[in-house]
Design a protein that fits this description.
globular; Rossmann fold; alpha/beta; binds NADP nicotinamide-adenine-dinucleotide phosphate; 7 strands
Length: 240
């Protein structure tokens, strides 16, 4: 797929990984719609940075736990969306023993139901004769579940299966792939001691930072013969 001139929607794009993906797409020549939930100012600042790269940017707000199709409907301004990156997620600390029904449903809504119905809205809106691509942002720990992030891990496992099911359902016009991330950025508020400890568990002996994620997303988008793929970007953490 030619990224130059295509319009992309990135969810949760105000900060951190989503912001880096949005800037990476802009660097490749795509126009970008930045979705945010609570971070309107940061999304606006990222949009300014993107415009400075010579492409167009717009911001749209919305709670993906509510009505993902309504969020997608707000993207109109920059022309048909040809790229969807489902990045926004919740990462609550919960266990099977104590998770409440409400908390479970909230995590599933943002991390799994929203990507499903954003993808449905995206596929319905894609003009005839135009091809598109979706990248879901998942987590290699679906293969070795975190005990302490139960609802998150189960939702991301569903996102892995959704990636393959949607790739089959939407071929040949829309390709659907995923990146399964390892330790990319520390959770907000964690210090360098936390990073050092984390690095010991990773064959590559460091956390990734966002550049390898951006490279993986751009490569999955650009390669027209890859669909249903889940590409681990985890410094080899899954090998241990
Ligand atoms: N960071 C890592 O090392 C790592 C590791 C493995 C997997 N991942 C995955 O990579 C992706 C990005 O990670 P991250 O650490 O950058 O994520 P993050 O900072 O925890 O969250 C990303 C965005 O999700 C949005 N969001 C939260 N609740 C929402 C809701 N109800 N409706 C709409 N948007 C909502 C937030 O938007 P607002 O700020 O606008 O509220 C937030 O900026 C996630 O899918 C995560 O699971 C990350």
């Amino acid at each position: 797929m030619e990224l130059r001139g295509a319009t992309a929607l990135v969810t949760g794009a105000a900060h951190r990984v989503g912001r880096a993906i949005a800037l990476g797409l802009a660097g490749a020549g795509s126009n970008v719609v930045l979705h945010f939930h609570s971070s309107a100012d940061a999304a606006g600042a990222t949009a300014q940075e993107i415009r400075a790269l010579g492409v167009e940017a717009a911001t749209i707000g919305g709670d993906l736990g509510d009505d993902p199709a309504a969020v997608f409907a707000a993207c109109g301004e920059l022309g048909p969306v040809r790229i969807l990156v489902n990045n926004a997620a919740l990462f609550p600390d919960d266990r099977l023993a104590d998770v409440s029904r409400a908390a479970w449903e909230q995590t599933l809504a943002v991390n799994l139901t929203a990507p499903v119905f954003l993808t449905q809205a995206f596929a319905r809106a894609l003009p005839e004769g135009v091809d598109g691509a979706v990248v879901n942002v998942t987590d290699w720990r679906t293969q070795r579940p975190y005990p302490s992030h139960f609802s998150y891990t189960v939702a991301k496992g569903g996102l892995d299966t959704f990636t393959r099911a949607a790739a089959e359902a939407l071929a040949p016009r829309i390709r659907v792939n995923a990146v399964a991330l390892g330790a990319i950025l520390p959770p907000p508020g964690k210090d360098s001691a936390y990073l050092k400890e984390l690095a010991q568990e990773i064959p590559m002996r460091r956390v990734g930072g966002t550049d390898p994620v951006v490279a993986a997303v751009l490569s999955l988008l650009a390669n027209d013969f890859v669909t249903g793929e889940i590409l681990r970007v985890d410094g080899g953490a899954h090998l241990r």
